[in-house]
Predict the 3D structure of the following.
Amino acid sequence: MKLTHKLITTAALTALSSAAFAQAGETVKIVMIEAFSGLMAPVGSNQLKTYQFLAEKYNANNPAKVKFEIVSIDNKLSPAESLNALQSAIDQGARYITQGNGSSVAGALIEAVNKHNDRNPGKEVVFLNYSAVDPDFTNSKCSFWHFRFDADTSMKIESMTTFMKDKSDIKKVYLLNQNYSHGHQVAKYAKENLARKRPDIQIVGEDLHPLAQVRDFSPYIAKIKASGADTVITGNWGSDLSLLVKAANEAGYTGKFYTYYTGVSGTPTALGKNGEGRVFQISYSHYNMGGKFQKWMEEFNAKFKDDMYTNSIDNIFNSLTLAMAKAKSTDPVKVAFALEGLKFQSFAGENEMRKSDHQLQQTMFMTVWQKVDKKYPYSAENTGMTLAPVQKFEPYVASTPTSCQMKRPG
């Protein structure tokens, strides 16, 4: 009987041990739906390399003991193509998809994922959003299946204008943005926040231009100069920002730029040594974070001859592995519930995935374009220039309220 009892106890312990790491050894496929062709291809390609690089790091060691496989599909920056890509991902058995470039694309994916999950219980898909920042996605269009790891536009503009309100040299602002949901939201929140914090500032011009179609921004710069604007606020990214700053340099515009994406592929090179002290970026990270993550960024640069700037992807791997360990599963429903309210340490401090709307609450940084030095040595695209932090905003500063009425399964 003693032997029998011992065997039963050993079996029970073995069962408990295997249950504790029910997901150990599983391979988790993440399908990346992004633009890998056209003017914005350099951005998507950089982010794919970031996913692959960080997957390798987390495959070597993570709390869930899982392995990640990254699959990419070109959506050509088109919502319609993205829906085809989503179906292809589902047909491949993927339960996790990721995207970030283009809120028009993200909006289409959220709606399609919602419909798929409603119609296919047991085959649910989770959408991991690393950079589509339309606030509606965590407000009126919030979804249990969508998690945003970037800060949305309301958070970025809240931090940006908190910095700008104390700058007495800002008197006239021009708003130049891409003509889709993201660009509209940047303009909307900028006007609202400036009116509240600095009602003396004049909005002297506002333009919206086609996404990823303009090759010559000199007419826009001419309008900005004619308006007398001393400052431009833009949410432009990729070629639309690179070509904008190139046109500004060529036309001799000496005003300030407040941006979201100065660090994104091509823009540092377009800036070169111009714009020192005049180009600012609001973001959840920067080139000179320090610590282990700084070493990873330098390793990425040495390996790919490129800069790693979409660091929200690290937040995805970090929180996803913690949630899978907590859920003891890779099942998307269980993992989604485990992600809700999850607090974790990131490269920038403590983050929290807010349960009410699935918007990551995180530290924000205002940085400025300047020459590298001993304190901030990372050279962006080998320009000898960097984005150096000038102000840090704790998560509560950037946090904005949500109107989300989350509908959860079950």
User: Anything to note?
Assistant: The first strand starts at residue 27 and ends at 34.
